[in-house]
């Protein structure tokens, strides 16, 4: 029969997992881009890949310490944002969408190609970069600790603590920004950039700043993402970006806590759903294979994106009036 | 799964491996490059000091394994009766060893100029099939303002239907092609009827529509994988022997493919320029409200554009299946960005720009393999897209006002 | 509105603005804006071809002309929202060629739009605050430290509330701008433009789509701007309004300046009458639509 206990406890683990934190942070970056500025970034997976590889390559190839590797990742994502923004931020919104999605694919293909295998590990990716980060862990206990379903090793707890701390800092940072006059300009650009331009604001520069901030959030998310796993280039495919969009739309695009709530709800529900389907298939409830059960989640996410955009564009936390879609 | 979204508890590395041992006269050879390709996945590895290599793959499916003869020492080739590349499949275990026997001999080398001509011919073929999809995308964009990310699934649909009716249901290929095309037209009709027309009625904005199309793309793509699996399957009679036309070697399928593309593209051009519906389409593309006040049934025009666009995409998918070769669930998605690049290069919303953009992208992708490793060939086309936006954002045939 | 400065029945007209005859391109005593040889073509169609024009300082100038005369395009060119094919133009003696729109605005030349651009999902008050110049808190790094900008923010808010009171929008200050009526949005846009203390205010069809009940109040506000020492240039169709408030009228047709003069004499000008009677009222030369017009015409031909 179905082991409901393990389905629920697996779902509960997702509530605080570092992966949930990583997706929340990447979605917060998209909220800055899309929800507040109106920029259509479909290359958030590219920013995450740059964070992941920037960190791992800095550590493995150049032997940088943790802080150095983090700075390299952030620097690389600022350069990436500039490359994306300079040609497109003067153009109509959908050009940025096409260019960001293309650029993210370029990044992934460059990390996948065999040409740079010595540095990137090609399709097999990279691992063994976690030593420096784990050495900073003040927790030192053997085995697992915690309570209820949340029994983790010292390294897992360290990933969770650092991951969610970064998310909290990013939330505070975004909150400060969005209630300041800077945030007012950004929101004005989302509504009508010509009007803001006519009031003497350098719209291009503000859009670039927004692109960089959201991109750096994506990059930090990429670093949190790789702490509990290895760096595999296929993880940074376009569907990663689409997952983050689903989370953003679920939580509410023009809200600060929406992306965090969206990520938690998304992962808990997805884990619950996947766990249920997988075990129901084992129990022979559905005439499908386990591989097919794994694919159902992608179909579900796709349908969820469509339904959310059509029927609840403001998301869970958004104000019905301040829904994010203006044009 | 080759896609993202795996949680910490899922598999972190690939579970399935190809491995092998490259030796020549009992001496291990180091630095020989092996490539594994299939189902949209591609990876390479070099042999280590012991001559061993190992490549992880995402699916327990059949893959094409290639040994790059250029990386062998001088005077050594893969033995003549050995297949290279060869198709390898997993047995009961999660590993599969693939070994190539080497022999003495010299590689057949092709002169650079001949390679150039060959790549050019392939590029034209590829560009023409991209153009079929790109014109549909461009017409849909022109008439509705929608950047349709689900176009890739309309491409895949044609190939999957052909596979179903020819390989699975045993129809002759030409009948299966006709059925696949008719079903593609029907797909366009029903997508507009079920999703896009109601959304237009609700007055949903173009950005929202674009995100809906992204969700639709994801849902459709994995629905295909759900029913057809992750493996790449071959169409009956695909990859026949090449014919030599002077220095250029193409198969008869390549020639037919180019011929079909040219005829269909001319037909679309005639439709747009000379027929009533074509003129109505252009009028709607230029200014829908003005067209409506001139008595044009805008909804009907858009419906026809969707049907036509889906039919062209389905045909493009069939040709793409022969070009790759093979049919897989995400084959359309593999070229979606190239189609977008083509449309953007030519100028968003201009049908003839889409044709020129496609030819440029197709030729560029093929020619770039002369200098770049083949797993980077799509990179060059996407880089060109960004460069063009930098210097001529309106596209090659676009008007400056359109980007305003 | 501040009634002591507002002449409601018969506004005081500024006179003696020009030198020599009142002909197209004539010199002004004290021009604030001077344009020379400004041209803009769209796909072979000339939308704007202005040889020379001067806008008098401290007066209300109306830019009139039939549909498709190029008035809005000329506005866009002057304010940096579009780039001309050729030409030079100065504002207060400083060249504006190749100056981006936001810099033009910072120089004190503020414009409004034909289709109102109120920022719908910002509150009315936030709309106003956005108009203020030189805000410390609009810098990314300083915005994170509220104590650096809080004081300035309070001053801006006080000014915004004062202006909103003058424009009778203070009761709506916490509502989303999207909830305002068309006329109220026009008022908001004008009030927002005043937040930056501009020297030249350019209004693109300030009366279009405004409820007649609000028309008089809008007119009074425009006259108010002049009393406060600002220069006004506006595009308008309503001849009654032009006659009522404008000190000087510039007439455009087919991209050119065809007549200039005070409102009463310019209405008698033969060139103006020709321009209005001879104009194609049905086709807007909005340039980008020409091929569409072609396609529609072909279609109509097929029908017959």
Automatic annotation (TrEMBL), chain A:
Out of the domains of life, which is the source? Bacteria
Q: Has keyword Ion transport? A: no
Would you name any one GO CC term? plasma membrane
Q: Where in the cell is it found?
A: Cell membrane
What keywords tag this UniProt record?
A: Cell membrane, Membrane, Transmembrane, Transmembrane helix
**Keyword Membrane in record:** yes
Q: Provide the topology term for how it sits in the membrane.
A: Multi-pass membrane protein
Name the major location: membrane
Which molecular-function annotation in GO is an example for this chain? branched-chain amino acid transmembrane transporter activity
Q: Which InterPro entries match?
A: ABC_transp_permease (IPR001851), LivM-like (IPR043428)
The membrane-spanning stretches of this chain are: 20-39, 46-64, 70-89, 96-119, 157-178, 211-230, 236-257, 264-288, 294-311
Its recorded name reads Branched-chain amino acid ABC transporter permease
UniProtKB/TrEMBL annotation, chain B:
* Domain of life (superkingdom): Bacteria
Which GO biological process entries does UniProt record here? amino acid transport; carbohydrate metabolic process
What are the protein's GO molecular function terms?
Answer: transmembrane transporter activity
CC terms in the record's Gene Ontology section:
plasma membrane
Q: Which InterPro entries match?
A: ABC_transp_permease, BCAA_transport_permease, Ig-like_fold
Keywords on record:
Amino-acid transport, Cell membrane, Membrane, Transmembrane, Transmembrane helix, Transport
Where is it located? Cell membrane
Family according to the record: Belongs to the binding-protein-dependent transport system permease family. LivHM subfamily.
What is this protein called in UniProt?
Branched-chain amino acid ABC transporter permease
Species, as recorded: Agromyces mediolanus
UniProtKB/TrEMBL annotation, chain C:
Q: Which domain of life is it from?
A: Bacteria
Supply the InterPro entries for this chain.
AAA+_ATPase, ABC_AA/LPS_Transport, ABC_transporter-like_ATP-bd, ABC_transporter-like_CS, BCA_ABC_TP_C, P-loop_NTPase
Return the SMART domains for the record.
Answer: AAA (SM00382)
What's one GO MF term for it? ATP hydrolysis activity
Annotated ABC transporter domain residues: 33-279
Q: Could you name the Gene Ontology cellular component terms for this entry?
A: plasma membrane
Ranges where the record places region Disordered: 1-20
User: Residue ranges under compositional bias (Polar residues)?
Assistant: 1-12
Entry keyword set: ATP-binding, Nucleotide-binding, Transport
Q: What is this protein called?
A: ABC transporter ATP-binding protein
Q: What species is this protein from?
A: Agromyces mediolanus (Corynebacterium mediolanum)
Q: What lineage does the source organism belong to?
A: Bacteria, Bacillati, Actinomycetota, Actinomycetes, Micrococcales
